[in-house]
Amino acid sequence: MTFQHPSFGLISDDRVVIFDTTLRDGEQSPGFSMNIDEKLRVAHALAELGVDVIEAGFPVASTGDFESVQTIADNVRGSVICALARSGGKRDIEAAGEALKNAERSRIHNFISTSPLHMKYKLRMEPETVLEIIAKGNQQARHFTNDVEWSAEDGCRTEPDFLCRCVEMAIKNGATTINIPDTVGFSTPEEIQAIFAMLRERVPGADEVIFSTHNHNDLGLAVANTLASIEGGARQIECTINGIGERAGNAALEEIIMALRTRRDRYGKSNNIKTEKLLGLSRLLASITGFDVQPNKAIVGRNAFAHESGIHQDGVLKHAGTYEIMTPESVGWTSSSMVMGKHSGRAAFRDKLQSMGYKPLEEAAFNEAFQRFKDLADQKKIVFEDDIRALIDENERGHNQLQLVELEVQAGTTSPSKITLTLSDNGEIKKVSTQGNGPVDAVFKAINEAFPHQATLGLFSVANVTQGTDAQARTTVRLEENGRLVDGQGADVDTVVSAAKAYLHALNKLLVKRQRTAPEEIIS
């Protein structure tokens, strides 16, 4: 069986379309925010990964969202660029069409709730009104693009007969992809497989569209439900890097892709993802958002290919397949994490960055990164790949209104810790001295004095980037202001400096988020 799709042409039944919503649904995560430059970096990386569709944002939500989608549509090639819109929001669809007008290939993704619960309490609409809106929304979207996706928000809790009517209405009025999301992460694999099988059997025209699945992870079943959806007939999967998203997150792209690859005997489905780029993109996103993945995270966690048990180590040494069902290299890990030292030169550093998957840096950025590498090498005996990743990722951050210039610390057991801090606020130098209950408390007070704000500290966490007493500390700081949550990260061999960088990173992200307006309604 094959599908004729307006963006992809003839698609064989063994092909799965990969739809990434990291920049839209993923960015709805509490504490996550990205500026336009950072979103563009992620979008380029997604295109290079081989993602078929990049959902770039919700243009009507704010000026910032519109500009982000427009910038990605103007600059990213190789993937379909998608924008979200409400089915009943004429202005939504117009904004999406305008933002996408320069895209190489574009898609408008419109949605409306269909479950009894949502229609009664959220929409306050009768079913017949919802059907009318589905028809009008898809018709309007077709004026801007021939690639139109429609979603039944809370589709997995929708009554089957009404869901069939909604899907039929969307197809009749121009939708080419039909998405049935498990918006609240309620379904089980057996249930969601049955939903897709039912729709494909009962709905007229079902063989003329691609069915899509979008699963949230509230019960820890997002990846399992995605794989079950494929067995039920879904041929597009909606997912995010590192599984980021609202509440417990979305189905993780890297886990789904490697499940399909490793168990091709079971699923028999192919895709265009270049799996060796998965780790690099995971770490890029973690650096930008300030959210590290947990150590035991499948595929991209630092323990994913680590073996401590003597029995396991013995088996792997004899044959890797005894305890590894995929190779580390297949997802971007390298066999050695040790890199260079203080005697390494510019050519070696440039070559190392290339081997780690980084694009060539502009000369000024490379010079700055190389100098920071040399400074780090002077402080550490051995510089590891993870050290370099932390250095480069921090070097490429776009949040830069507030910058740490200098920090002096006096601490001990006999008196309060004292801090003298100098920072730059859009080029204006501010210097303050404070004391506190420990150096971290003192440095945060100093930043607050230099840049007064009302945000409160919700999380302070320190972890090591690599091993050893000279390892860099990676600090995570979470700030909250008027319901806005942001996480910042900093890395340095000095834990107090690392904490100061993390706090400033969070403040810079908060400044960006202050300028954004939350949309009235967003699909999950």
UniProtKB/TrEMBL annotation:
One Pfam family per UniProt: HCS_D2
GO cellular component terms attached to this protein's record: cytoplasm
GO molecular function (one): 2-isopropylmalate synthase activity
Cofactor(s) listed: Mn(2+)
Protein's pathway: Amino-acid biosynthesis; L-leucine biosynthesis; L-leucine from 3-methyl-2-oxobutanoate: step 1/4
InterPro entries: 2-IPM_HCS-like, 2-isopropylmalate_synth_dimer, AIPM/Hcit_synth_CS, Aldolase_TIM, LeuA/HCS_post-cat, LeuA_allosteric_dom_sf, LeuA_bact_synth, PYR_CT
EC numbers for this chain: 2.3.3.13
Domain of life of the native organism: Bacteria
PANTHER family: 2-ISOPROPYLMALATE SYNTHASE 1, CHLOROPLASTIC-RELATED, HOMOCITRATE SYNTHASE-RELATED
Protein role: Catalyzes the condensation of the acetyl group of acetyl-CoA with 3-methyl-2-oxobutanoate (2-ketoisovalerate) to form 3-carboxy-3-hydroxy-4-methylpentanoate (2-isopropylmalate).
Keyword Transmembrane helix on entry: no
Catalytic reactions on record: 3-methyl-2-oxobutanoate + acetyl-CoA + H2O = (2S)-2-isopropylmalate + CoA + H(+)
SUPFAM superfamilies referenced in this protein's UniProt entry, alphabetically: 2-isopropylmalate synthase LeuA, allosteric (dimerisation) domain (SSF110921), Aldolase (SSF51569)
Keyword Amino-acid biosynthesis annotated: yes
HAMAP family: LeuA_type1 (MF_01025)
Domain Pyruvate carboxyltransferase: from-to ranges: 16-279
UniProt-annotated binding residues for Mn(2+): D25, H214, H216, N250
Assigned keywords, A-Z: Acyltransferase, Amino-acid biosynthesis, Branched-chain amino acid biosynthesis, Cytoplasm, Leucine biosynthesis, Manganese, Metal-binding, Transferase
Subunit structure: Homodimer.
Originating organism: Aristophania vespae
Taxonomic path: Bacteria, Pseudomonadati, Pseudomonadota, Alphaproteobacteria, Acetobacterales
Region of interest: Regulatory domain: 403-524
Protein known as: 2-isopropylmalate synthase
GO BP terms, alphabetized: L-leucine biosynthetic process
Family classification: Belongs to the alpha-IPM synthase/homocitrate synthase family. LeuA type 1 subfamily.
